[in-house]
Amino acid sequence: MYSGQFPGSAVVGAEAYVEDTAALRDIIRRACAGQLLDVPCGTAFWLSAYAANVTGAVLIDQSERMLDQARSRAVILGVDSKCTFLEGDVVNQAWEPESFDSMLVGFFLSHADADDEASFFRQIRRGLKRSGTLLVLDSIWNAQRARANPSRP
Fold it and tell me: Would residue 5 count as lying in a domain?
């Protein structure tokens, strides 16, 4: 949905993608339920879209700064009691088998190389229940992004 309207180095907010953000919120609201994994969670931007539908959420990110913002967002939304925050490597995190009903992977795969992607999906496959839902949000891969990230084929 995010079609590369802005240069990769541009810092833009949700207001730049109002229609896209609204459409994604609707998809997230429908797809994310039960025990959820938000990986990597960043600032928990999508938390307000799924919070009402989940019984619990594990939000993981490798950046303590991002997790601090995610915690603050959860408190502001009044859903911090159903959130668990973990600082860690999302690529190699070993989840307990079939721990999650749904998983939200937001804007991560376009930053991963092929080896990290394969490792990441092995862990995701392990942690997601057989009847679970995996929702992946990411930018469209195009020639401009390929030049910026030559490690991706």
Answer: no
